[in-house]
UniProtKB/TrEMBL annotation, chains A, B:
Residues 42-165 form the Gfo/Idh/MocA-like oxidoreductase N-terminal domain. One of its GO terms (molecular function) is nucleotide binding. Residues 1-27 form the signal peptide. It comes from Mucilaginibacter ginsenosidivorax. PROSITE patterns: TAT. InterPro entries: Gfo/Idh/MocA-like_OxRdtase_N, Gfo/Idh/MocA_oxidrdct_glycsds, GFO_IDH_MocA-like_dom, Glc-Fru_OxRdtase_bac, NAD(P)-bd_dom_sf, TAT_signal. This is Gfo/Idh/MocA family oxidoreductase. It comes from the Bacteria. Pfam families: GFO_IDH_MocA, GFO_IDH_MocA_C3. PANTHER family: BCDNA.GH03377. Residues 176-294 form the GFO/IDH/MocA-like oxidoreductase domain.
């Protein structure tokens, strides 16, 4: 059966298989590729050893500033496998019952929560209470209220809360953002984000409302939502949305199959987006301005991002997104570095507010105002 | 100042300048390119000698089945110019007051109405009453009610009513339609049509509600509307729409600047479209099915249409759209031939019903049902 991860792998070459060198320098170009790093290394425990957790673990093998040192899992056999594969000591292995004990473990700095969406809220708050920095896969939570509680808990515990927005470090994406900031597209007028894939196994947690918090919007539409903001450089002020369901068995109540949504921005720019679990051949971003345009295709998959602008092809290097992300997170946590586009809990809450508004707009058929 | 026609010329190579050979055979491939034509020639008078009328006149110079033989214009100097350029006899020249007299002219078979949208209704009905076949540029009218009256008038007068849907004869477009009918895309899931350009001269008739009947939707959005039907092979059953206006001076009350609209089809397929007078770099069609996709870019401009599908690049020949259209119209009028996609008044009324629904949806913010 297809899984989302399988699909994302298929839509481009497997970056992992290519053993591509990660960019170790900062995305803004102030650091150098071949710098020798002698700063602190971010020691990370991964919570949730599924397919994406595995991808992150593999990618971290080439990190220079971050290191996989622990695991949290409910499956002892997986823990054993990871221990052996990544040389993880017994004392850094936890399960979902006892991981609060991580508090007294001085060899772990941060926990990367890569579990089903519906579990993030409680797990991240437990991580915070254990005094560890929390890294959380997106969507950070299943709604903005839960997301805000996570932000508050981390603030209270004086730990960082970062979210796995891997595109915020992707070189071609950053080049488009640089061009936009430099005015090379002129006034921004339109963004289009088409995100989706044909989801396989109907029994997977992504199709279980309690675990996923929703459907395609949560899992893949969030790329268009977040992308609409970093591509245009604005936060939307209204949203309209239309839901279409062709398969009521696979996509049960509360699990969206296909949602079209439109966003309006303060400048007058508009966005037109599609999120779906029923089609492949998407993964397209298009940004249009008065003076030029940018197109990313594929735009958010794991494989090489490709794209062009009115000036020609984008030739920035191909990176392993998760390797770069984890290295950058070390700098954010230890040196308070600021990425070009934020990846903190507040950024995630903005996306969750938009998701809340999309669901409300789809349900009511009305234009919903957004205040971020 | 930019005009729409200037823009459409710019977005691709000028097909006219290339002196490309038109396809004289039928688009469905049953006729041959080099056939010797000895059937009746459609003798056409053009009403409205503006930039598009000029384009049609030029394109008709290489027609084999249609011939420009007359003009109807309110500008005597233009009439003189055309008479000299195209060898049009004095007796085939009319103005807007006296063109009903065309009734008694045995040397004209049809009148191609290429005037501002708001004038089509009355002019086409006068053409029908004069007993001549009417060819009308799109949009055929400014609303469905007027359109239906035109259809009824032509039926009553026993003359044909054809509309200038030039894309219905464009080879790459027809190949996508053939592939869709053959099931090569599988079940159709999604259509996207992005149509627009930055309109220039604020004094032009296209920005005058009385003459244009609306704004960008009338002029360029209609390509996405009509395209959504011939690309998916279905007629929509609902529409939602969002209007955005950033310039209230240039785009007055009733003249839309930018409208996003979404369509739902009986099969569950959806469409996401954009119509605008405020951005270039658009002219994109994307059709997505369960088994494959097609992309046309540019999709409806005058220059060479380009595109690809999941099978590769579309390599069908480049044609001068207006030449092929006029030759094909001769066959439709004299031999009752049926094009792959209809180009008659009923087809145009369907688009006008969708336009009515889009304006209503944008105004009310509701999902509007459509019955075509």
């Amino acid at each position: 059966m297809n899984s989302r991860r399988d699909f994302l792998q298929k839509i481009g070459l497997s970056a992992l298989a290519l053993h591509l060198a990660p960019i170790s320098g900062w995305a803004n170009g102030t650091d150098h590729h071949n710098e020798i790093y002698d700063g602190p290394v971010l020691r990370v425990a991964i919570m949730g050893l599924g397919s994406y957790g595995t991808r992150v673990a593999e990618a971290m093998q080439t990190c220079t500033k971050a290191k996989l040192v622990g695991v949290i899992s409910g499956t002892p056999s997986k823990v054993k496998e990871w221990q052996s594969k990544y040389k993880i000591p017994e004392k850094n292995c936890y399960n979902y019952e006892n991981f609060d004990n991580i508090k007294s473990n001085p060899d772990i700095d941060a926990v990367y929560v890569i579990t089903p969406n519906g579990l993030h809220h409680d797990q991240v708050i437990r991580v915070a209470k254990a005094g560890k920095h929390a890294i959380c896969e997106k969507p950070m939570a299943v709604n903005a209220r839960e997301g805000q509680e996570m932000v508050d808990a981390c603030k209270k515990a004086n730990v960082k809360l970062l979210v796995g927005y891997r595109m915020h470090f992707e070189p071609k994406t950053l080049e488009v953002i640089r061009m936009r900031k430099a005015g090379e597209f002129g006034k921004i007028l339109f963004f289009q984000g088409l995100c989706g894939f044909t989801i396989g196994d109907p029994t997977q947690w992504r199709l279980n409302k309690q675990l996923s918090g929703g459907g395609s919007i949560m899992d893949i539409g969030i790329y268009a939502i977040n992308g609409s903001r970093y591509m245009t450089g604005e936060d939307p002020v209204w949203v309209t949305a239309q839901e279409t369901k062709t398969d009521n068995v696979k996509f049960k109540e509360g699990v969206d199959e296909t949602i079209q949504f439109q966003l309006g921005f303060p400048s007058g720019a508009v966005a037109s987006c599609l999120s779906t679990y029923t089609m492949n051949n998407l993964d397209r971003f298009f940004l249009n301005g008065e003076k030029g345009f940018a197109e990313l295709l594929p735009s958010t998959g794991y494989g090489p991002i490709m794209g062009h602008t009115h000036k020609g092809e984008l030739t920035q290097p191909v990176t392993v997104h998760q390797t770069v992300q984890m290295d950058q997170m070390a700098g954010i946590i230890f040196q308070n570095k600021q990425p070009v586009v934020p990846i903190d809990g507040e950024e995630a809450v903005k996306d969750l507010k938009i998701i809340d508004a999309i669901y409300l707009a789809a349900k009511t058929g009305t234009k919903v105002s957004i205040k971020l």
